[in-house]
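Sample log: Tyrosine recombinase XerD.
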Amino acid sequence: MDIGNEGDKFMNILLDAFIDYLANVKELSQNTLDSYKRDISQYIAFLAEKKVDDIKHTNKTTIITYLLYLQKRGRATSTISRNLASIRSFYQFLLNEKYIDRDPTINLESPKSEKKLPSVLSLKEVELLLAQPDDSSEKGIRDKAMLELLYATGIRVSELVALNYCDLNLEMGYIQCKGNNSSKERIIPIGSMAKKAIERFIKECRVNLVRDNAEQALFVNYHGTRLTRQGFWKIIKMYTQKAKINKKITPHTLRHSFATHLLQNGADLRSVQEMLGHSDISTTQIYTQITKNKIKEIYNKTHPRA
């Protein structure tokens, strides 16, 4: 019998039990589950390389060695912090299940990283990007509706593609959106421009794209099935190049721009936090720094004694 292989198999059984717990008890979204599974799978692979065939044989030094290993491989500080958070949750699960009698992650601190301000678009750049889809084609009408909705609501791309037709209330002008934790739902107004774009998409395009009447997805591809995050990434990349905007634009850029523009125009932080679905207001506060920087820039450009 290959003891090493048996150990690997058992650790993967523990991982499956952990993911099952996160899915059925914590009710986390599929994207979050995939992230946990990827992080812990990589940790287990590292332990196998080090000939550690039982999680009980790991300790604080093991975990620190793994974090240093990630650092040497050029992983970003944010990625290392996320890995540690996943590993910590895994050990806490094992402790609660009484498979281990101590948690080696206690008092282990995440690596400190400077918070980089997210890249945001100016209002003119947003308008330029939103003007790119060809509204004489079904694809352009669909893409216009998606871009308008992203900027109008600040939802994540994963939330955009997860939207169902029934999550939309055009009469009242809002969407129901489930965040990373699928049990937490928020109501977000969509605004007149997004509403108009979505109405046109539904009337002129969706009815032609959807082949199965049982399809619940709001936004679908040419196969009539739910659009993927990867599919949307290709779409926004194409329009960025078409708009010739000299900034790195990701699907998250419109979310950052949504929050920043709201705060610049007087929205209160708590309301923006609620619309973004942040559990911690400190996450939302990063956008106030962008706003302060913008005010300082305007002051330096316009005040005669600046």
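Observation: The radius of gyration is 23 Å.
Observation: The chain has 13 helices and three strands.
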